Amino acid sequence: MLAMGLTSCNNDNFLDTTLYNAIPKDFMYSSDANATTGLNGIYDQVFPNDDYDGDWGFKPNLFTGSHPTIDTQATGWDKDWNTQKWGASSEELLKGWRHVYAGIVRANDYLAGLEASTGLSEGVKKSLHGQGCALRGFFYHWLATTFGRVPMLKTGETYMNTPTKARAATYSEMWNFIIDDFKTAVDELDWAPMNGQYGRCTKGMALTYLADAYMWKAYRLTDGANGQEQNENEAKKCLQEAEKCLKQVLDSKVYELSRSFTTNWDPAGAWNKETIWCEQLDEGTNWGGWNDMTSKLMLKWYTACPENGGWGSLYLSWEWWSSYEKGDKRREASGYTGAVPQIDPNNPAYDPQYEGWYEPAVYGKNPYLQEVLGQSKGADTKTAQFHFTNGEWAPSIWSAKLWRTATADYLSWSDGHWSPTPIYWKRLPNVMLDYAECRFRLYGGDDTEGWKMINELRNRAFGKLEDGHEKELTDKFLPYYNDYAHWVRNAREAAKVPIHDLTEYPIPFGSTVATVPDAKTVYTALKAKKGFDSPVWKVAVNEERRKEFNCEWCLRPDMQRSGYMADHVAHNYPERGEASDMANSPWTVRQYKYDDRKMDMPIPADELTKNTECDQNEAYRADEK
């Protein structure tokens, strides 16, 4: 769909074309083709847009959807998102707010015209209406899970005709609006995307978000009420509806787990059968320059190691790294560690207390790009210690999901800007773990269906679906990395950094354990070891989320909605001061008291100034005085 925007002006006479704002509004609805094209204006806001938020998909999503869990970390001003020091003046919050409300306003305007139109074929009009409602629901879902109660602009309402509006009076009022949008989308959309175009909203996407919305409403009627009315019976009804939606997705067989967790972030894995809703950035093997971009989201610079050309916006914690069991391949698929001597059993400095932390495929290197971590510093690198430093301490682990497909060093700025990357909003594992949670809440912590879902996901995590398919997977997913190596080779060799053709996929396929440990047994033991207050089922669901969804923006919202955030922070990140030798200590410093109310982010100060009917969330009202 974005290709239309990139090629529509490829004409010598484009300057003589009639301006869009001079075309009568009803022209958009004069034909099926025009109405379909008009919907692209809403889809445009699913992607970064410099007019509102050129970093959408990374910032503010990382800051609000991941950093509060502390599993992802930062330095500089960004570190405030790890310590609950964010505030109403945050630029990232304001940009995200403006970005999604721009999408909502476009949807409201489009839907008003669509509903009044009379010249469209019934099937096309129905699909376009369903997509418009699903997109508006998606934008509101981000606002509601990020800020709590927000102003709900309805069909036909825009900032022009509704410049001020109060927030929804209750959480239920807000979630009912979102639920209605997704219910409409479920009724009007098919399982397959319109015209076979991946990236369009589908019935599966709408059902998944509808279930999520029901679960959020249930949370706000119980643990997350924040002083509003609680209603256990209504919450149970919401969970029952969520269970039905999720079961419908599972029973449809439209979606299935990829054989390899790892390959979900490879270009050849774009829009695979596991994907339900995704912001797919720059798919393909064209790296091009500034003029060829579909998105200028600078992921590889944000996420690469600073000694490999990165900007230092993202690090992963050792607490997260150490949470995995031996043989769980999601860890090496998600991160690269510095070559820390204490975790390497082959190093004389090895310390047995870190047994199991060593992953040879990603130890001290990014194997996809054939880059040694800290290669620009040589022996002076600060990556070969538990906490990296270039002025501030941060854990020496970098994301393998987001820094994988393009270098931040060679041929990177002027003519190698792209890094094809999926930003997953919903994958099949979201459905599986949400379904497990609904089952446990409705039928008790011993529910066999719930534990079945978790064990099925763990079976893939330990590589069992890869077994016997190693060659097939290699043939499909390896070629991109050799194509990229050929493209960057001259620049690498000029810098005296050799690169060669790979004969095997960077992380070996296949399981390394005979039997996958039973989830209930594992998490019963973990609860006892760490002293979690939550029941075993809740520990299991949410610890699996931590392992599955690191650097995916559903993590904090899902853990909050589950009522697990406080337990997680208290026991996975106990309060501790800075170690005397941070270079040789893996553990995170936490010197603040966790406040669950602050998981509802502050309404941006700019919105409060312009929208006099809007008020601030309670946890931040003292900041305004």
Task: Explain what the structure shows.
- This protein has about 625 residues and is mainly α.
- Among the domains are: about 40-255, Alpha Horseshoe (Serine Threonine Protein Phosphatase 5, Tetratricopeptide repeat); about 290-415 and about 425-515, no CATH class.
- The protein is about 40% helix and about 5% strand.
- The chain has helices spanning about 1-5, 30-40, 40-45, 60-65, 90-115, 120-145, 170-190, 205-220, 230-250, 300-305, 320, 330-335, 430-445, 450-460, 470-475, 480-495, 520-530, 535-550, 555-560, 565-570, 605-610, and strands at about 70-75, 275-280, 315, 335, 365, 370, 385-390, 395, 395-400, 420-425.
- A two-stranded antiparallel ribbon has the order 1-3.
- Strand 5 and strand 6 (about 370) form a beta hairpin.
- The longest helix is centred in the first third of the chain and has 26 residues, at about 90-115.
- The chain starts with a helix and ends in a 15-residue tail after the last helix.
